[in-house]
Amino acid sequence: MTARIHDFWPSVGAAMGVDGLVDVVGLPPARGYVLFLVDGLGEVNLREHAQHAPFLSGLDAVPDVRSNVPSTTVTSLTSLGTGVRPGQHGVAGYTVRVPETGERLNSIQWDQPLDPRAWQAHPMVLAQMARAGVAVAAVNEARFAGSGLTACSQRDVPYHGVTSTWERHDVLLDLAEAAGRPAVYAYESHLDHTGHQHGCTSPQWRDELSRVDTDLARLRADLPEDVRLLITADHGMIDLPRDGRFDVDEHPRLLDGVELIAGEARFRHLHTATPELVADRWREELGDRAEVRLRAECEEWFGPLDPAVAGRFGDVVVAARGDFAVFSSREFAREMEMVGFHGSTSETETRIPLLIG
């Protein structure tokens, strides 16, 4: 059975003896766990750069582990925290249509007047574990405390905001060494930022990977022996050549009938009153460069859609293939400057490591 990111915390809880949770992954029993997520460290990316990460590459790995679709941070972190698929929690992508207003929400900047607890109503698996006596905590960058995404994906869990990797290391050790049964989440953002800016095959990305590898090797060495270290990611990444960048604003026929474009370059949500016509038009134009589906055809990707959140997903969904992506120089100018991308359904973007230390 393929494990997905929403299976991780229920599996940890089951391995720690919490009733009502199921270990899909097959984890060893332990007094405690630290689950450390490295943003952007896809399994394929790690394998291709194994020489720059000797510690990570030498760990035991759970085979065939996947993110959800879209393979993007906001969706994956919410699936991780809630233990459910995107079609249930409704955090449908980096940008997403608010059905009640027709406006577009940036799920990281949280630039619409929405209560994140109402927007994402599912509780946290860690909060369930806390009620069973597990000492849960999240260790993340201080600047993310209180953000909309944090409320969607990490709420009701003690939050330890840190400002450096050294501070994070010390806080994680304090939490893991405390009496009781610790289950601690930690997050690293810099590898993903480097990939977007410089590319995931760049010298800068490899240097950042080496730094992360060193930090995690030190963490494993310093953690108590009865606390296991799980290392994972939210998605992988590809570098996109300039000739694969399709600017939809240069093809006005494709925008005919499209009320709003959301998502991101590798995975677009199109909102329209005429989905069949729009889908046919996009299929004709893009051919085998993208997979174009109607919302009703996407259960394989999103899981069953809760009617309460279904309108956040595109009436038409465009998943890029190969070295291709759909841009809008007018609506998403910043994306035009990026090198590394993710979000679609490819092996590189959806395969994530789950390493046991």
List the helices and strands and how they pair.
Layout: E1 3-4, H1 8-15, E2 32-38, H2 43-48, H3 54-57, E3 60-61, E4 65-66, H4 73-82, H5 86-89, E5 95-97, E6 104-106, H6 116-119, H7 125-131, E7 135-141, H8 148-153, E8 159-162, H9 165-177, E9 182-188, H10 190-198, H11 203-222, E10 227-232, E11 238-239, E12 245-247, H12 252-255, E13 258-264, E14 267-272, H13 275-286, E15 290-294, H14 299-302, E16 316-320, E17 325-327, E18 340-341, H15 347-350, E19 354-356
| Biggest sheet details | 7 strands, mixed
Approximate helicity band: 25-40%
Mean pLDDT: 97
Overall 3D shape = globular
Number of domains: 2
CATH structural architecture of the largest domain: 3-Layer(aba) Sandwich
Proportion of residues in extended strands: 15-25%
List keywords for this structure.
Alkaline Phosphatase, subunit A; single chain; 22% strand; 357 residues; 2 domains; Gyrase A, domain 2
